Amino acid sequence: MAAQSAEAATVTASATAQHTGASGRIYRFEKLLQEREHLGRVWVAEAEGKRYILKDLPEAYFNGFSEHVLPRLKTRQHPNVRLPCDTISNQRTVVYDHLTHDFLTLAQQDLTPQARKQVLKAVLQGLVELHDKDIVHLDLKPDNVMVDCSEHAGILTIGKVQLTDFENALPLEPGSKKFYYGALTGNENWRSPEGHLAAKIGKPTDIFAFGIMCIYAMLGKIVFAKDSDYEYQESQGNPGPLILMQRQLSYFGDDEGFKALAKLVKRDGLLHKLLTASWEQRDSPKIPYKHFSTWPEVEDDVVFKDIVLKMTNLDQRKRPTAREVLQHAWFSDVQEMGDGKVVVGTASSVEAQVE
């Protein structure tokens, strides 16, 4: 997995000039989107009448992606996997086709449940492609899903859904144990229990994150977002990862799952003790988080409840594969996007948001 020191120099494109891609295409700066400390910039550029996203990468990320991830993925251009369409010559800057929305933003709008499921299914199809190529995304979250929307006669239509941001993905060796140890992975709002423990990271880690994404897409909740309880616990000196793990244990835990999770840290006496205390306190009146199976929002949706609980099992060995999730009954009524388009609502209900 790539790493980059704070002091490491980067060679990136300037957002104040035009730049020539390896394709010969000339990109002209339009708008700076992000200034990422130690990581570089992300901006919108124009070339030949089209808009593109240009993204700087640190050297370790660029080399790891170019040498170990991209060669596997570009053997087949999957429609739900977003790959660079160009690079800036002699610089560590990759170029992507411009898509109008990220799913974090789009999901907050007035979409039908069926449209949300169609987006999720498209994401899952991209994840199947990654896992079939023995690549773990490691940072699966709604803002790493790009969606292209268009408007005609007041009707909003989704034309493309793509999983993106593979620069820090983990390529697994075919035939290996297919797990990785020793580093925190992904954004804490979508991170798996083993991700918090920096233990046994693999394809099931992505499945947990996708389960949390499904809750967000269908119920509108970022279940691990910081709230007043988090702030109180933090003020009492409790470390952030332990606070979030308490929430994971409360929402998704059962005896077998906890035992499997605790086994990952059995050699760390203090961490094992803290994890056990969190498990034993999960039903305390002081803990406001209730098991997902008891949530009123899913009381009548047995199939959705079933797939989410499978994907968020604390025992990663019992989580389904991406392909098994795709074959679950919850997705059985989701039609393919056909020509790649699905009507989602009126154009006035959605505002454009790139990257």
From TrEMBL:
GO terms for biological process: mitotic DNA damage checkpoint signaling. Residues 12-331 form the Protein kinase domain. Keywords: Kinase, Serine/threonine-protein kinase, Transferase. The keyword Cytoplasm does not apply. InterPro entries: Kinase-like_dom_sf (IPR011009), Prot_kinase_dom (IPR000719), Ser/Thr_kinase_AS (IPR008271). It comes from the Eukaryota. Signal peptide: none annotated. Pfam families: Pkinase. GO terms for molecular function: ATP binding; protein serine/threonine kinase activity. One of its GO terms (cellular component) is nucleus. This is Serine/threonine protein kinase. It comes from Neohortaea acidophila. The lineage of its organism: Eukaryota, Fungi, Dikarya, Ascomycota, Pezizomycotina.
